[in-house]
Amino acid sequence: MAKKVAVIDIGSNSIRMAIYAKTSRFAFHLLYETKSRVRLSENAYQNNGNLQAIPMQRTFDALREFLEIIASFNVRKTLCVATSALRDAPNKQEFLTLIKKQLKLNIKVINGEKEAYLGSMACANLLPKQENAISIDIGGGSTEFSYIDSDSITKSFSLELGTVRIKELFFDSNKLDEAIEYIDNKLLYISDLSPTTLIGIGGTFRSISSAIMHSIEYPLNKIHGFECLAQDFIDYIEKILYADEKALHNLGIKKNRFDVIKPGVLILQRVFKKLSIQNTITSGVGVREGVYLSDLLRNSKDKFPHNYNTSVRYLIDANIPNTSYANQLSLVSKKLFDLTFNHIGVNQKFRYDLSIASKLYPSGRSIHFFSQNRHTYYLIKSALEYGFTHSQIMLIATLTRYAKNKLPSQKHVAKYHNLLPDSKTINYLSYLISLSIALLSHKPRNIDFDLSFSDGKIKVESTKPLYLSREALKKVSEIKDLEIIF
Length: 486
Known about the structure:
CATH architecture of the largest domain: 2-Layer Sandwich
CATH class of the largest domain: Alpha Beta
Shape: elongated
Strand content: 15-25%
Strand order of the largest sheet: 8-7-6-9-11-10
Structural class: alpha/beta
Radius of gyration: 25 Å
Number of helices: 19
Distance between the termini: 51 Å
Oligomer: single chain
Number of strands: 14
């Protein structure tokens, strides 16, 4: 696979382009992303699905400039897919031929089932594992669904429900009752499903989630992985559905979404009435990432290797040249956890978060040695993107911010209290990562000490004096019920 790959997704409402770069076999990061709201399907549904000249020209112009951007990054491979607007259009060949002839771009028109699969495959790989979930991707012309259970995807399908389609067929002529009847008839297809989690893909869902986050003063600026109780989500979309433009603005909906947000909200409302959803999770990834991953993972059945996380690997590839030290920190912290977690009374699930925090702790050093903790903290908050809950991200980031000598401040814990565990757990984990750093102060080629635990005492044994470790330990904030002896 090429090191840099561009993906273009041509939808009914917008076209989007993303450029990804590999850092190792399965690790990648986003280099660039942009979109244009070309409204390719504008007035199409009132004209038997035929694409109109002005929207086609807008799309042509945007694609031409997308390709110029791609060329500026020296991208070797470009993948371009089109969804509902083109697959439904009787005159699509006219547009496809024009693009191929004048822009030398091959557009692959994918069917609805494939579109649903690509979006859900990205979710299955790049969100925390979800059991008994259904993904929904509300586009301009169609809505895609897939059933997701952990990393398995079944029953992918597409329905002729979309924001632009519903707007032009019903909302423009103020036919709300007819719209509800039309949507409910289409949604009969999902009547036999009983998922408990709804995973939202696409602009409609992200817009609503972003507005909810703003309304509750959510402390983490990250839409991907945002979780919300279904009832809270339902209550918010009810307000949107019957709001005027001023109220939409006050609810946090952006002006460029005013004309299509209500058709999208109506689709969502009817889905919630059909299904007994308990929780929602917002996906920042979708078809584009699915197209990229289908290329990246084509020889591994569209799945990352077991226990592999692409964001962790990217941060290591980009920021930690000495992976031996990072691995040692992880090993020592896990050993300390295994010895002491029962004594302290901490849930064993936090072992993984401690391990990742320890492994990524050195990453900020590549930016500035003397402000390593601060840079590691911000790197993790922003770039530990995939496969972690927001609670995990904040805990891992917090452990690295206060590692080495002090426990997390009360002010910091108070700010993120909804995303962090109790103070005892935070202080315990923070102590263990600081202890690991101290014990490895002499940067051994191989770990040259043994650890044991008895009666609240962690015993360190070594044939070496460990002078630097002893000195470093004097600066580490202690916690109750644990003592370290040499």
